[in-house]
Amino acid sequence: MTDGIFIAIGIFTLLCGSSVILCKSPVYSAFSLILSFFGLAGLYILLESPFIAVIQVLVYTGAIVVLFVYVVMLMNPNSSGAYRNWIFMIVSAFLAWAVSLYLLKALTLGVAPAVGGAHALSLKEVATLLFTKYLWPFEILSIFLVVMIVAVFALAKQSKETPNE
Amino acid sequence: MSNFSSVYWTQFIAIALIGLGMVGFLIRRNAIVVLMSIELMLNGVNLLLIEAAHRSGSADGTMLVVFIITIAAGEVAVGLGILLNLYRIKHSSDTELYKELQG
Amino acid sequence: MTPEMMTNLKLFAPEIALTFFLCTLFVYDAVLPSLRKTLFPLIVIVFGMGLAIWATADVATGVQTYFSGMIANDGFGNFFRIFFFATAAICAIVAYGSKELETSGRTEFGLLLLCITFGLSLMANATHLLTLYIGIETASILSFAMAGFARHTLRGNEASIKYLIFGALSSGLMIYGFSLIYGYTGSLQYAEIGKYLTAHADGRPLIVLFALFLIYGGIAYKISAFPMHFWTPDVYEGTTSPVATFFSVGPKAAGVAALIRFFLTACATKTGEGVWTSIPGLSLPNAVAMIAAVTMLIGNLSAIGQTNVKRILAYSSIAHVGYILMGLVGMEKTGLTAILFYLVAYCLMNIGAFWVVGIVSDIKKSEDLSAFRGMGWSSPTLGVCMAVFLFSLTGIPMFSGFIGKFLLFGALLKAPGFLWLAIFGVLNSVVSLYYYSKILKAMYFERDEQVVALDLLPLHRAGLVLLAIPTVVLGLFFGPVIEFAEKAVLSFL
Hints:
The complex is a heterotrimer.
Chain A: H1 2-22, H2 26-46, H3 50-75, H4 86-109, H5 123-130, H6 135-156
Helix pairs in contact in A: 1-2, 2-3
Chain B: H1 4-27, H2 31-56, H3 60-90
Chain C: H1 3-11, H2 13-31, H3 40-59, E1 64-66, E2 71-73, H4 75-97, H5 106-125, H6 129-147, H7 154-185, H8 190-199, H9 206-223, H10 231-238, H11 241-266, E3 268-272, E4 275-278, H12 284-304, H13 309-329, H14 333-364, H15 375-378, H16 380-394, H17 400-414, H18 419-444, H19 458-476, H20 479-490
Antiparallel strand pairs in C: 1-2, 3-4
Helix pairs in contact in C: 2-3, 2-5, 3-4, 3-5, 4-5, 4-11, 4-14, 4-20, 5-6, 5-11, 6-7, 6-11, 7-9, 7-10, 9-11, 10-13, 11-13, 11-14, 12-13, 12-18, 13-14, 13-17, 13-18, 14-16, 14-17, 14-19, 14-20, 16-18, 16-19, 17-19
């Protein structure tokens, strides 16, 4: 039963993913991206990682894709000439397909060791880890995000000084 | 859920997503869609990590995913900021038109 | 607060000092915006870097990992810490004298510089893939923004979007490599990965090599080595000169350090005092030798046909990465010592050369070879300093670049079977003489139609001379630096 749901959600995610790269209009791409992220959130729940599933919906769908949609709206999407030339397309698609297929075969051959045996990470465990072992990278990330906000401000602000060109 | 077929399926989906991202990166001309393809790729990677963390029972993979998601948000913010600046000058987000620098 | 936490924080003091000055700059800029027109941002950065160097000297005694084994504190890492802090301080001075950056943007530049330096230090000291990832992303995402500071120019924006798109792709591929390695070994710690790969050498799937290649690709983007070198000339040409100056030194050194630390810990085992052997089934020396050869060939051949001096220097910086990677081929201490010495020499001469280009383009609004015509006569300081930097970059005896190359080639000859690479490297140096001498020829043997007086600020004069003197002195009295580098390599974790 779960396997059936798993496969169904997987196929849904892949279909939405392909529609991201095939839709001519960036708006449709963005909406397909949202749907595929929802599919991924479903997969995370099936893989017993509800915390990541929630983050996926909140951060990816709620923040990142909304940013994309916002910029697409600002930019007046032009749908002419969405793709590069078709030879390029076919070659790249073939290459990606072949490499992926090969990798899949190679991956399942080298299945990793089960260190502690499969077990799900509860929300409490995630929180404890995030504030003990992973507190340090967490703090670094906060510095990074603050400076990044400054950087984006600096990029976006209108300057009174005359442009060079 | 830790039988062979689900491992196989998850890896298949993850690698297919990464492949889709690569193809999108290569074939699309619109810079915004190129950034979306990269996001798709990152999600494939996240799925692979979550699967490995679930299989091996270690927490490192899950934590790495949390950090990847946060950093991806930052990357997109900076990327779209630069893209808007470029759009103000060029009035297009078509990467094939960005040909100033060559030689 | 546990005692363990206190020790950890003490070892992390240099980076904490950077954060403190970052916050200082941030708060003062918000409260007193008029300060950004003064020397204040520069003073904060230089003072902060000085304090960070002092703090590094204070912790540079132990050899251990801290913060749950995520980051290392050893002589090697501390050498690089001091290197980054000094480079960032010099680059802040370069940026201060430049007219390309708006005066109102100085604080933002300072903040980004401080935070990128923070990221570089993490990259060089990481012993855990998560730390490496955060370090690389902190350094690169903020670099994208920094490259975008030339935001009114089409070229600047184009450079920065190219930098961003390919950077995002390469970091995506890099974490793809991380995830494959994690799926195979079940760990993100370098040492654990190394142990697992050594123990399970038989029947290792090819995918592990693929994953290692992807990780190499992610780091290669930062050091602009083959196959991720193509962005370098475009980005350096498009962005402002001070930013290009910083990119050509800081991130490259950090990438080299990260590369050395990752591959010597995760893909090799220490078999003696300063000697490493790669894990069975993976010939690291051969791989590095091929990459080094291709990288220097591409850099030098592409530089020949260029007329834009910044592009020439960008290609030459690719070639120099090729030379630097030669030191890793032998996988022992003389090679690594040579790398560290070469990085010091490279820092001095490359910053100097880029600075001269920046000054010329400020005055003449052009970075073309024609802008350099007759410069040796119209402005002797600029001419002589540029000549010193170019001689050193070529590797002419009596200059520090020569000693660096000499050490690299010498280390290579110790490793059996790599004579071809040494010869190849020497031939490449000869090729590089051609394009460096093109700049020299323009400066001294060609006359400009209209003579433009080059008014140099006292800051420029003093700064260039202060960079040129060590470039020469290091070519004559190299002992102390080599000793220092050797000590650093020997305490590699």
